[in-house]
Amino acid sequence: MHPDLLTRVLSLLPSPPGATRPELAQFYELLRDYPQRGGKGLRSALLLAAARAHGVRSGTPAWEGAQWLAAALELFQNWVLIHDDIEDDSEERRGRPALHRLHGVPLALNAGDALHAYMWAAVHRSGVRGAPEEFLAMVHRTAEGQHLDLCWVERCEWALSEADYLEMVRLKTAHYTVVVPLRLGALAAGQTPDERFTAAGLRLGAAFQIRDDVLNLRGDAAHYGKEIGGDLLEGKRTLIVLHWLATAPADQRALFLAQMALPRPDKDPAAIAQIHRWLLQSGSVEHAQARADAEAHEGLSLLQEALAQAPDPSAARELVGTLRGLATREA
Fold this sequence. Notes:
Layout: H1 3-12, H2 22-36, H3 42-53, H4 61-88, E1 92-93, E2 96-97, H5 99-103, H6 105-126, H7 131-154, H8 162-188, H9 196-218, H10 221-224, H11 230-233, H12 239-245, H13 250-260, H14 269-281, H15 284-306, H16 313-327
């Protein structure tokens, strides 16, 4: 996240020196924890790039509104990550123990709820017409996708298709990662968002998530920000795993399903490491990367069409370049 945007986010949150008792000072620290851990700020950067492409200039009231929307998007990202880490029983976030690992589930959950409220405060400050509706739709779509993901884990459901996976990630990831930042950028300029932003964003967001799944298996832990192989420990349904399961030898499939039926603390580290190796050797990672490439190609083509008449062609090209890097990243 850009330092100026972090300052804006933190300006909305209460500060520990202002607390009337030590328990509240701790609460205020919890609210600031995930935002201050850094993060790439990808979604807020996309929103601001989209605003520039639509003609919004620095120093104008429209730019101020876009900045508050970017802050709201970062607050959304952070409260969702707190809840996601609890629901997935994750160990790490951005190179440090997840918030619930440090302070317990009740306190972490409460901090996430409070950040959700501050997100709406930032949306209100933006004064951008149509922004509350976009955020409401984003919360709904993301929750739907998370519900699918959690249901499959809860029910030990592995008889899933590539189409099932894509539906889940387009709901859970693509809307808030790409679709909504593009639409909010147009709204900040006082323009009606091009409907092609949705189709483009769904494809680019899916490409982003598939790449993330790949990085979870073979990324650089220093840059990735989460534990490598964590998706296996959490029982995540990924395109890689679903493709591998379709042709895996019976003994490998049996070991995998037996491990996935266990809660995270009971999984055998040696068995998980073996499954990890099988996945890397199977060709399923390459299959997933090919699908990500196809999704990215379609999404970028649609996005370029939607931005063909953008008020600021240079900023539009920069936006497309940013999304190309996001959807085809290797680290």
